[in-house]
C-alpha cells in the first residue's frame, strides 16, 4: 500500500546537521503513518532471538502497526517467518504472542499449514484448486548469531556486512543453548524515535541511572570520561584508554575485537566494554545473576559485549546472561519496548538464578528511561519546541538520526516509483 505523505519531504529538508529533528517528525500522525507503512518496512528490524523459538513448533509474533509476522521453528530446525494472514480469506492464523503446535491452523475455516508454510489442508475447495499455490506468504528473515531480523519489503536491503561483523562476536555465546528466563513488555508514552535516541546516549546517565552505572558504567555509550586524558601534551580518546587497559586479557581469552561503529553507512555498532567496579554481570551487586555461565566462559568475566542496530534494537552479552531490547511504534506517542533476559538452557529458576535479581538493573533503568522519553515527547509537542544542538557526547544520537533521515528519503523515492 502506498500513500502520498505530502508533508514528509518538506520536513526532511528542514533537518540540520548537529540538531534534533523538526517537531512533526517526532509527534505528527503523518510521520507515524509514514514510519510504520513506508520507512520501517523497508529496513531490517530486530524481532527476537532463536531462544524465543527454541523447539520445533514454537512460534513468536513480531507485530508492528498493521503488520503481524509469525516466526516459527520448523521440524528441520530452521527458523522461518511468514505473514500472519491466512491465504483463504485473510484471517490471522496465530493470535497468541507465543505458542507451540505441530502445524499452524487458521481458527476461521481451519485451513492448516505446515511449519514450513505449506498449505496442508483446505476443505471443500474446487477440483482445480492446488494447495501448492496457497502457502503462507514468506517474510525475509536473517539469523545473525542467534538474533533474528525480519524485513517486510519484497526487496530487502543488503545485510551481509552486519551479519559478518555481529556473528563473529556473538557466536561465542551460543544462543541456541540459551532460554528466555524473563520477558517484559513496557509501553512508553513517547514517539519511538525518542525512545531510540534516549538509548543512543549516556549524557543523561549520571543524573538518572544509579543502578546501571554501578555495574555497566557510561564509557562507550557516546559518553567519554569526565575529561579527555592528556598524555605527553596530546589528547587521547578516553574510550580507547578504557579498552586499551583490558585488551591483553581479552586477547588471551579470545574475546577481543576492535570497535565496530556504524562503518561505511552501515547500521551496526559492536563494542566489548569492561564492567564498572569489577562487576561480573549487570546486576545490583555486580555478581553473576546465573551460576550457569554461557558460551566459552568457565569463570566469571568482568566485561560485556554490547551490540546496537538501527533502527530498533540494542543488546548486552555478559558471561552469565544476555539481555536484548527491541522496540516498535504503537502510535505517534506510544512505543512498545520489549526486554528479554536469556540464561543457559540448563539453568534452573530458584537454584541457579532468581528472575527478579536477573532483571532488576534493567527494569529500574527502563522505568527511568520511560519517564525521560515521556517528558521529552511532552516538551517537543508544545509550541515552545525548537530544534536543539547535540552535545559532544551525543554522536550516537546523530548517527541514529542520520540513519532515519537517509532511509526515509530512500523509502520516499521507492514509494514514488
Could you characterize what this model shows?
- The protein is an alpha+beta fold and 417 residues long.
- The strands form 5 sheets. Strands 11-19-18-17-16-15-14 form a 7-stranded antiparallel beta sheet, sandwiched between helices. It has a 4-stranded antiparallel beta sheet with strand order 4-3-2-5, with no helix packed on it. A 3-stranded antiparallel beta sheet has the order 1-10-9, with helices on one face.
- A hairpin with a 2-residue loop joins β18 and β19.
- α5 packs across α9 and α5 runs antiparallel to α10.
- The longest helix has 27 residues.
- The protein is globular and about 80 Å long.
- The two termini are 13 Å apart.
TL;DR of this structure?
With 417 residues, this protein is α+β, with helices and mostly antiparallel strands. The chain contains 10 helices and 19 strands.
Largest sheet features: 7 strands, antiparallel
Distance between the termini: 13 Å
Name the beta content range. 15-25%
Mean pLDDT: 93
Unreliable stretches covering 5 or more consecutive residues:
224-230
Number of helices, where a helix is a run of at least 4 consecutive DSSP H or I residues: 10
Summarize the helix and strand pattern as letters.
HHHEEEEEEEEEEHEHHHEEHEEEEEEHH
Annotation keywords:
alpha+beta, 4-stranded antiparallel beta sheet, 10 helices, 28% helix, 25% strand
Topology:
Blueprint: H1 7-13, H2 23-27, H3 29-39, E1 45-49, E2 58-64, E3 67-73, E4 79-83, E5 98-100, E6 104-105, E7 112-113, E8 119-121, E9 140-144, E10 147-151, H4 160-170, E11 178-188, H5 192-199, H6 205-208, H7 210-215, E12 229-231, E13 234-236, H8 238-253, E14 260-261, E15 268-274, E16 303-309, E17 313-317, E18 322-331, E19 334-344, H9 355-381, H10 395-416
Antiparallel strand pairs: 1-10, 2-3, 2-5, 3-4, 6-7, 7-8, 9-10, 11-19, 12-13, 14-15, 15-16, 16-17, 17-18, 18-19
Helix pairs in contact: 5-9, 5-10
Amino acid at each position: 500500500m502506498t500513500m502520498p505523505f505530502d508533508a514528509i519531504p518538506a520536513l526532511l529538508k528542514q533537518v540540520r546537521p548537529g540538531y534534533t529533528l523538526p517537531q512533526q517528525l517526532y509527534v505528527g500522525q503523518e510521520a507515524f503513518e509514514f514510519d510504520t507503512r513506508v520507512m520501517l518496512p523497508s529496513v531490517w528490524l530486530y524481532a527476537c532471538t532463536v531462544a524465543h523459538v527454541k523447539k520445533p513448533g514454537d512460534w513468536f509474533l513480531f507485530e508492528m502497526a498493521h503488520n503481524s509476522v509469525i516466526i516459527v521453528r520448523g521440524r528441520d530446525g530452521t527458523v522461518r517467518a511468514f505473514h500472519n494472514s491466512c491465504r483463504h480469506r485473510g484471517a490471522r492464523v496465530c493470535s497468541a504472542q507465543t505458542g507451540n503446535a505441530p502445524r499452524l491452523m487458521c481458527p476461521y475455516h481451519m485451513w492448516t499449514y505446515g511449519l514450513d508454510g505449506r498449505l496442508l489442508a483446505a476443505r471443500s475447495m474446487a477440483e482445480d484448486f492446488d494447495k501448492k499455490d496457497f502457502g503462507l506468504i514468506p517474510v525475509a528473515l536473517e539469523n545473525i548469531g542467534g538474533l533474528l531480523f525480519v524485513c517486510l519489503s519484497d526487496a530487502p536491503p543488503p545485510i551481509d556486512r552486519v551479519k559478518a561483523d555481529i556473528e563473529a562476536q556473538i557466536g561465542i555465546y551460543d544462543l541456541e543453548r540459551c532460554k528466555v528466563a524473563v520477558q517484559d513488555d513496557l509501553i512508553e508514552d513517547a514517539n519511538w524515535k525518542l525512545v531510540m535516541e534516549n538509548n543512543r546516549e549516556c549524557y543523561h546517565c549520571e543524573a538518572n541511572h544509579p543502578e546501571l552505572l554501578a555495574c555497566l558504567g557510561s564509557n562507550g555509550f557516546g559518553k567519554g570520561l569526565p575529561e579527555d586524558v592528556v598524555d605527553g601534551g596530546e589528547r587521547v580518546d578516553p574510550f580507547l584508554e578504557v579498552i586499551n587497559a583490558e585488551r591483553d586479557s581479552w586477547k588471551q581469552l579470545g574475546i577481543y575485537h576492535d570497535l565496530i561503529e556504524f562503518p561505511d553507512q552501515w547500521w551496526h555498532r559492536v563494542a566489548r566494554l569492561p564492567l564498572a567496579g569489577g562487576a561480573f554481570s549487570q546486576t545490583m551487586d555486580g555478581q553473576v545473576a546465573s551460576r550457569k555461565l554461557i558460551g566459552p566462559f568457565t569463570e566469571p568475566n568482568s566485561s560485556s559485549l554490547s551490540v546496537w542496530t538501527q533502527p530498533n534494537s540494542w543488546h548486552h552479552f555478559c558471561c552469565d546472561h544476555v539481555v536484548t531490547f527491541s522496540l516498535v511504534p504503537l502510535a505517534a506517542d506510544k512505543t512498545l519496548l520489549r526486554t528479554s533476559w536469556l540464561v543457559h538452557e540448563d539453568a534452573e529458576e530458584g537454584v541457579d538464578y532468581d528472575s527478579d535479581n536477573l532483571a532488576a538493573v534493567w527494569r529500574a533503568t527502563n522505568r527511568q528511561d520511560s519517564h525521560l522519553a515521556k517528558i521529552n515527547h511532552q516538551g517537543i509537542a508544545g509550541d515552545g519546541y525548537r530544534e536543539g544542538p547535540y552535545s559532544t557526547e551525543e554522536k550516537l544520537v546523530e548517527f541514529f538520526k542520520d540513519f532515519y533521515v537517509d532511509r526515509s528519503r530512500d523509502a520516499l523515492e521507492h514509494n514514488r516509483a
